[in-house]
Amino acid sequence: MSQRKRVALLGASGSIGCSTLDVIRENPESFVLFAVTAHKNLQVLAGIISEFRPRIAVVSDNNREAMDAEAFEALRRVADEAGTDIIQGADALDQLVSMAEVDVVVAGIVGAAGLASVFAAARHGKRILLANKEALVMSGAVLMDTVLRHGATLLPIDSEHNAIFQCLPDRLQQAVACKSALQHLPDAAAADTLWDGISRVHLTASGGPFRGRSRDSLSKVTPEEACKHPNWQMGQKISIDSASLMNKGLELIEACWLFDLRPKQINVVIHPESIIHSMVEFIDGSVLAQLGAPDMKTPIASALGWPRRIGSRSARLDLFALNGLHFEAPDLVAFPCLRLAGEAFEAGGAAPAVLNAANEVAVQAFIDGQIGFLDISKVIQASLDSCIIHEASTLEAIVEADARSRVCAEELVRRFS
Ligand code: NAD
Ligand code: MG
Questions:
Q1: Which CATH superfamily is domain 5-156 in?
Q2: Ligand 1 pocket test: which of 10, 15, 133 has the largest number of ligand atoms within 8 Å of its C-beta?
Q3: Is the CB of 160 within 6 Å of ligand 1?
Q4: Is pTM, for the whole model, over 0.90?
Q5: How far apart are CA 181 and CA 124, in angstroms?
Q6: How far apart are CA 205 and CA 272, in angstroms?
């Protein structure tokens, strides 16, 4: 019993949360759900509490007036019965991840809202399973440094990054997860050949629901169409990011920070079947790939168990049912967000935080019917052009850049709508 790892699941009510719960259900002898968090979806949270009886639940939405009082009362009754303490308040997430009882933090909150809790987990030396790519995109160098200085462990559960991680030799997996060993390797970013004989990384992308379409044909697409992802069941924001290829742009930046790469060392490949989750190419011409059914339970289990293998309840890959695997180059004219992300990474400083904030504002405006799909990239481009913020060497500076970029992007949305 005491050997079980205690998991704090941030964003328990979301898509990553749901998949993580299944992996925990499969491994009750190894993991116990210590804490859960949700923003608004109190009914889902109540269901999780009644099944898992965690010690703590955080409801992070502080807007009590907007909160459904009846649903909150029902949640409280379920929590009392389960022996779960409900915590609320601005710093509840930080408090939670800082607790000594927490061994593993699953960062499954969407967007910049998850940034502070990822940092708090890093400062407390936790093992962090990172789904919240936006936090890393915003704060790359500062977060990597925080992980290193506080002896935290950062394991990617984004399927592509988890695939790349799985294709690395053990020594490099250790170096990537704990950051420390990367410090002693030659400057990978400056060299043509990456560490340990790796020549480049192939980052795969499904292409989303609009793959093959011209830019002009996308002017009238709706949020519902954008959310219809061909292979993955995901939250609304990441689904729209997949449709615009901004998800791949964010993942390009994520891969640069996690694996100490430059964008030119990463080959983005459209692979519509989402069976190969990414690949690592070595100097002898070998290419190692990680394959699996498109099911987030696999990368989550891989990171939760690492360096062991554990069961996952994931869908199995039926090789005989595949109708071939296809690959094509991304269309950067129809989908400029991927290019914008690479440029923001190269620009450095606060540019990726500006890109991310502008994207979050633009995606929400698209969902709300204020702007069209093609305006998303226009808002981001204009934000990057007009929002001049260079410094991003502290968490405070990043938060400031995020806030300023949001104001700027909201103004642009008003102009476009
Ligand atoms: P989702 O919308 O399904 O769930 C988001 C979760 O975040 C919910 O639990 C919600 O309550 C919480 N949340 C939302 N706003 C919040 C706020 N302001 N404060 C605190 N909590 C808040 O999203 P998802 O698809 O599970 O994605 C979560 C993260 O994982 C994203 O960063 C996404 O890019 C990443 N990711 C998701 C998938 C996937 O398959 N869903 C795959 C790879 C990476
Ligand atoms: Mg991904």
A1: NAD(P)-binding Rossmann-like Domain (3.40.50.720)
A2: 15
A3: no
A4: yes
A5: 20
A6: 7
